[in-house]
Write a structure and sequence with these properties.
Oligomer: single chain
CATH architecture of the largest domain: 3-Layer(aba) Sandwich
Distance between the termini: 103 Å
Helix content: 25-40%
Structural class: alpha+beta
Length: 544
């Protein structure tokens, strides 16, 4: 059946098939012959018909119908493009018209349509599609492909399809009449099975035969038709020399290909990964011809097959062990990389904290500078002695703030928006009742706002004597007074500085006071604790 470049088809001798009674399927014996067809060339406008009284388009439609009914998930257009692709060849297994006519006449039912054959159980899936009425028995289907280089062939196909279905309906009607003739027996009644394949080359330059489609009419299943066609495909005298036969079998065909010496071994078939897989949800299976090319072997095939099975199992176990080992190594590497990444993050975090501490100390030094830019310390800020209501108080202890760099970010952001960001002054917080230690540790907050004659603000004095609390404590702060309005008007309801200013300055008889309207304009520096001069005191202590 090997076709040269000039041949459009070829035929093989008649073969007899027999199915013994099995379950509900009756015994069946029939004869059929094989035909090899290349539809890509057969459908050219100048091609002649290869089967008497059957047009080439009806031949194609019948083959597509056989595939579509058995493999409905593929689709008619995909099936057509696969069958008609350049280089694709199709083997047809056909019965003689006269034999089929005699069978139909013997089974004619005079009172109505023929009863379903026992080979046509109705509990199997019913396929409703374009070709569901082509065969009297449900079939298997194959997929279609719309790979026609020009759209004219697709249009001609659909045009011929309408004529084919119309003539099919007429022939079915004729077969329901008594004394029908051979004209009522269409080509669809004679087809038994079909197989489409193509030759290709792998990346390793191996010659591969790819089985694209294979289907048998349901009434002829179990007779060995599919196995016979695969056997023809294996014969190098018919299809030419090859290195392997490869197919992508669906779940229903795996058992058939396995019985014909096709292997689904994953490692064995990995070499065919570069071959395009036409269908989804399939298993790659392959067949390798013997070295003898068909000559009888003296080896005990059962022992050889058992040995190959044992070798494959051992090879698979070794592959699994290596794969598991590599996966565990990969997981170990990932865990180590994650650990290194975590340690690197900790190092970066510690480095950032160290840098923040350095910046914090620098900021505190900058905050303790006077208006002339000269650096000062808490010892410089602290007034050693003050007089309050005729009572002399001496400095007993200095407690520095516990605020960190990160606590000042919000203050820096607010200060940067003042009208004059560079003006700040060391002042003393005026509120005899406040919890000054709490403010020293947390910073100023909206709770520290007081409602007094110049509005709702935070009041500071330039004199510690004016700011001392009932506990003889004075809170020292660095106040960003910004642009100052001097001697502003009194307004108890004021909640923000006058327009264009950041604070208000009040010049009193004994001291100057300042009012700010946001807690973010002041940073506590230290708390000065005083005691009466007549009490015993030691050296002044500074604590943080």
């Amino acid at each position: 059946m090997m076709m040269s470049s000039e041949q459009l088809f070829c035929t093989l001798p008649v073969q007899t098939f027999t199915r013994k009674k099995h379950g509900v399927a009756r015994k069946l014996t029939f004869s059929a012959f094989s035909v090899g067809v290349e539809f890509y060339r057969l459908l050219k406008p100048d091609s002649t018909t290869i089967i008497p009284h059957v047009s080439n388009w009806d031949l194609l439609n019948t083959v597509i119908a056989l595939y579509d009914v058995g493999l409905p998930d593929i689709g008619v257009e995909n099936l057509r493009s696969t069958v008609c692709a350049q280089g694709a060849k199709t083997i047809l297994l056909l019965r003689d018209h006269q034999d089929v006519l005699k069978e139909y006449q013997d089974n004619f039912w005079p009172k109505g349509p023929p009863k379903p054959s026992p080979t046509e159980p109705k509990n199997e899936e019913e396929y409703e599609g374009t070709f569901s009425a082509v065969f009297s028995d449900p079939e298997s289907s194959e997929e279609e492909d719309d790979s026609d280089s020009d759209q004219q062939e697709s249009k001609r196909f659909h045009s011929s399809l309408e004529e084919f279905l119309s003539s099919l309906t007429e022939r079915r009607h004729q077969r329901r009449q008594p004394n029908f003739t051979i004209e009522a027996i269409g080509f669809e009644c004679c087809i038994v099975a079909a197989l489409t394949y193509k030759k290709s080359a792998s990346k390793s330059k191996e010659k591969i035969i790819e089985v694209s489609l294979l289907s048998t009419r349901r009434r002829y299943r179990g007779c060995g038709a599919a196995r016979y066609m695969l056997q023809l495909l294996k014969d190098v005298s018919l299809v030419g020399f090859y290195d392997a036969i490869v197919t992508h079998a669906d779940s229903r065909a795996i058992e058939l290909f396995a019985s014909c010496d096709f292997s689904d071994d994953i490692i064995l078939n990995s070499r065919f990964r570069d071959l395009a897989q036409d269908w989804t949800n399939t298993t790659t299976m392959s067949y390798f011809p013997p070295f003898s090319l068909g000559q009888a072997s003296q080896l005990d095939t059962e022992d050889l097959e058992a040995e190959m099975t044992q070798w494959r199992e051992k090879s698979m176990a070794a592959h699994e062990a290596q794969a598991i080992f590599m996966r565990r190594i990969l997981q170990e590497i990932k865990a180590l990389k994650k650990q290194v990444k975590s340690q690197k993050y900790e190092i970066l975090k510690l480095t950032a904290d160290l840098e923040n501490e350095r910046k914090e100390k620098k900021l505190l030094r900058e905050q303790k500078e006077n208006k002339n830019g000269m650096p000062v310390t808490v010892q410089d800020i602290a007034v050693k002695e003050i007089e309050v209501e005729g009572q002399k108080l001496v400095l007993e202890e200095i407690v520095e703030t516990a605020l960190l760099w990160k606590d000042l970010e919000e203050v820096k952001t607010y200060v940067s928006k003042l009208h004059d960001t560079g003006v700040h002054q060391i002042l003393y917080y005026c509120d005899r009742r406040s919890q000054l230690v709490e403010i020293l540790n947390r910073g100023f907050s909206p709770e520290d706002v007081q409602q007094r004659e110049y509005g709702n603000g935070i009041y500071f004095s330039a004199s510690p004597a004016e700011a001392i609390s009932m506990a003889h404590h004075v809170l020292v702060a660095d106040v960003y007074i910004g642009k100052i309005q001097t001697n502003g008007e009194k307004s108890v309801s004021r909640r923000s500085p006058p327009s264009g200013f950041d604070s208000i300055q009040i010049r009193g008889r004994w001291s100057t006071e300042f009012v700010i309207f946001s807690h973010l304009q002041a940073i506590p520096i230290c708390l000065l604790k005083y005691t009466k001069s007549d009490s015993p005191t030691a050296n002044t202590a500074v604590s943080k």
